[in-house]
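Look at a sample.

——
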Amino acid sequence: MSFPDDTPVQAAGCVLWRRSPVDGGLEICLVHRPKYDDWSHPKGKLKRGEEAAAAAVREVAEETGCTARLGARLPTLRYLAQGRPKEVHYWAAEAVSGTFTPNDEVDRVLWLPPTAAGSRLTQPRDRTLVPALLTTLHLI
């Protein structure tokens, strides 16, 4: 099945957060993708027939090893990826369990305070999700 070039690629992800095991402060998980050498929020394309929320939870598990508890919807990011429009649907999600194991897609994860996470994100569009998370969690 082919799609016109202007049909957006559908993807989903999470701004994954936890309370620091050291000081209880908020930490946001970023993933490093060696293919792009970038830092981003965990996300990925929807499988055929998959709902965006299910894809977001699946992608978090695949990329970070964490089980995520979905929270509020966050803004949907729209941009061009390899010349095609892409829509990434995001949720706030708390990491409730799990352990990271490096894989071909993601070789590192970082848990950072919000300001440091915003600075580390490679794409400026991804940075807009940090204050959106803080607003959702009633921290700003």
In short: The chain has one domain: 9-136. The mean pLDDT is 95.
